[in-house]
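Section: Multi-chain targets

For targets with more than one molecule, the full set of components is provided together so that the structure can be written out for the assembly as a whole rather than chain by chain. Components appear in the order listed by the source. The example entry contains two components.
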Amino acid sequence: MTGTANIAQELIDRARQGDGAARQELLELYRANLRRMVASRLDRRLASRVDASDVVQETLADASKRLDDYLRDRPLPFLMWLRQLAGERVIDTHRRHIVSQRRSINREDHADERLDGSSRELIRRFMANDTSPSNRLSRKERRDQVMSALASLSARDREVLVMRYLEQLGAAEIAEVLGITEGAVKARLLRALIHMRGRLEGNG
Amino acid sequence: MTEGSDSSGRGDETNPLLAELTEEITRRLQAGEVIEPDAYAAQHPDCAGTLRELLPTMEHLIELGRTVARESQAESHPESPGSFGESVL
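Its structure, encoded as tokens over all components, is:
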């Protein structure tokens, strides 16, 4: 468990006993984490209309409303729960602003699949927006290849690679998000890397 | 260097030492260090082949991560922590 996760647990315990300040601190604890997650997954075409900080604020307001239910049932680790809410907000934002006429978002209850929805948006975003004439072709081609390979992976492989390499979360943080051990995260990352390498080599 | 294994073997996917080493290499690459595959090969000859094969994939992903981080920073705006009451929204 990370130091932050320990702090979260203490705050949860205090919030369950009715400590309002602990409740506020708990909601504030992962703001930067959520900001990084949302900023990396929000479509750049929305930049003039949507600020990642606003999406985070909406997520935290939503979390605040649902916090009593969460504290009573605690169906998921706290960070996982918050990231699910943020992932839903990102998907809803894209759906409202960009993709409402193209497709509907499948809202499965499984954590990986909810997270995967926003990781797909991240991949789509970079493949759709890397059109600057100043980009060198070889660099763009390589990035497109990496993105295509990433997009072709299973949701399980893709999500863990997105968290580790694109969001730059540490293995301990990913463990907290997924509710598995750090060793299991490293094993999952290794499998995903091997599969990714196969895709890049064209034999996966 | 002895190429002790390659990542086509299914056993590699469940090798805990390999998982630890790829995580260590990822951390070092993200910190901007240059990785010398031969140094790892000398210390871990059984993992040498797979590590050598996976290194370019890790480097590609890290480069992509840096691009994402740069673009996210460029798009970010100053934010101030607030409260979460309904009056905020």
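Residues 10-73 of chain B form one domain.
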